[in-house]
Amino acid sequence: MMDRVPLAHLPTPIEALPGLTRLLGGPRLFIKRDDLTGLGLGGNKTRKLEFLAADALAGGARMLISTGAPQSNHCRQVAAAAAHLGLGCLLVLAGDDPGTRQGNLLLDALSGAKIIFVPKERRDEALREQYECARAQGLSPYLIPYGGSNALGAQAYAHAMRELAEQRFSPDWIVFATSSGGTQAGLVLGAKETGFTGKILGISVDESASKLQARVAALAAEAAALKGGSLSFEPDEILVNDSYCAAGYGVLQPAEVEAIKSFARADGILLDPVYTGRAAAGLVDLIRTGFFTREETVLFWHTGGTPALFAEPYASQLGA
């Protein structure tokens, strides 16, 4: 086992979704509550940060630097991790400064992060510039990639699959939101390591299936190699559905509004408007079109992000 720094409330619970199961007429629906990992209001990135922050501390880092969108769940958890560990934090956010601090952006500020807004096309360049500037100033920065999605971060979800096995829960399907690929890479690696026999389906938030399949397969292999293993993965082994992301990243659609309200009203589960809302809309559509059988068990892996519900324009779009 690689070094980790304890940040998450684990194991996260698995709960039945009886209301949604009845509403949609099957399959049997359950949810894995990674929105309850705790750090900075929780989410899937907290698991990754246990590994990434341990590596940062081992290298003597005094600052965490990362990037994302203005309502990035990842950046919110990076800022919270830095505060918890007594480190500085710099966030390079791709987009315009909205002026007011709402949702995740408010929580970034409350955690004490320094925030820089840059045009989306300059995100990676600006991130590298800020990292080099911090190094030159002797601030000992540690660079966390977009979404925490590298081989080290992917270890977290291989570990999460072992957690699932220890909970003695073996669904026919695991369905979740996929974007930067690290969560899915860890899940498919962990599935091989634990002998999981179900299927792992990522609902793409913003990327084509082919691009995600290639990225996830490569990341899973790198993560296996990092632990001294030699597992290989082919892109066609990676299950990705990209039918629900044509509107673009973070653009809330009517199907997503319906899914968010259905989860809340049927079972009291709050989703987010960018990731889990889109994945839930995909799940609902797949159920309605008969993709799953009524007899199957489907686990929806909630990756967090609910603070974005309270930011504009999402709050207005979701207003009941």
Q: Which bin fits the share of residues in helices?
A: 40-55%
Distance between the termini: 47 Å
Strand fraction: 15-25%
Which whole number gives the mean pLDDT?
96
Principal-axes shape call: globular
Strand order of the largest sheet: 1-2-10-7-8-9
Unreliable stretches covering 5 or more consecutive residues: none
Could you state the order of secondary-structure elements as H and E? Answer: EHEHEHEHEHEHEHEHEHHEH
* DSSP strand count: 10
Number of domains: 2
CATH-scheme architecture of the largest domain = 3-Layer(aba) Sandwich
CATH names the topology of the largest domain as: Rossmann fold
Question: What is the highest CATH level, the class of the largest domain?
Answer: Alpha Beta
The structural class is alpha/beta
Q: Give a quick account of the main beta sheet: strands, pairing sense, barrel closure.
A: 6 strands, mixed
Query: So how many helices?
Result: 11
Radius of gyration based on Cα positions:
19 Å
Q: What key phrases describe this protein's structure?
A:
320 residues, globular, Rossmann fold, four-stranded parallel β-sheet
Walk me through the structure.
- By secondary structure, the chain is of the alpha/beta class.
- The protein folds into two domains: 198 residues, Rossmann fold (3-Layer(aba) Sandwich), CATH 3.40.50.1100; 104 residues, Rossmann fold.
- Helix content is 42%, strand content 16%.
- The protein contains eleven helices and ten strands.
- The strands form two sheets. It has a six-stranded mixed β-sheet with strand order 1-2-10-7-8-9, sandwiched between helices. Strands 5-4-3-6 form a four-stranded parallel β-sheet, with helices on both faces.
- The longest helix has 18 residues.
- The protein is globular, with a radius of gyration of 19 Å.
- The model has no long low-confidence stretch (mean pLDDT 96).
